[in-house]
Write a structure and sequence with these properties.
Elements lengths: L1 H16 L3 H5 L2 E9 L3 E4 L1 H11 L5 E10 L2 E12 L2 E14 L2 E11 L6
Parallel strand pairs: 1-6
Antiparallel strand pairs: 1-2, 3-4, 4-5, 5-6
């Protein structure tokens, strides 16, 4: 099951980088809980969709350096560039996803600015 969860996450990530929010959301449960540690939580696809519309005006650019799977969980570690007003800001991240019935049900995202690398 872990390999299937990894494949689903990779499919969802590909949709995000292509700007395909609906393709990403198709990999999620309707009652998804998306928590960015230190910022708050979104509940449900409608809330995630709205957040993406507001915050992913340009698709984020990210590189997954490691996927670690254990049972119903997959952790993705990597780097992320978020473009705001035409300026790419480098970040480091770790997303911990919980899967249910083959789809993403919960995210705990740890995202921090990374001034040690260039965008």
């Amino acid at each position: 099951m872990s390999d299937q969860h990894k494949a689903t996450l990779q499919q969802a990530n590909a949709a995000i980088t292509a700007g395909d929010h609906e393709g990403f959301l198709a990999c999620c449960h309707d009652d998804i809980v998306w928590t960015t540690v230190g910022e708050g939580s979104l509940r449900g696809k409608a809330a995630v969709r709205q957040w993406m519309r507001e915050n992913y005006l340009e698709p984020p650019r990210f590189t997954v350096t490691r996927l670690i799977a254990d049972g119903e969980h997959v952790a993705a570690l990597g780097t992320l560039e978020i473009v705001t007003d035409g300026v790419a800001m480098p970040h480091a991240y770790c997303d911990v996803w919980r899967f249910r019935d083959g789809r993403m049900a919960e995210l705990r995202a740890f995202v921090i600015p990374d001034s040690t690398r260039d965008a």
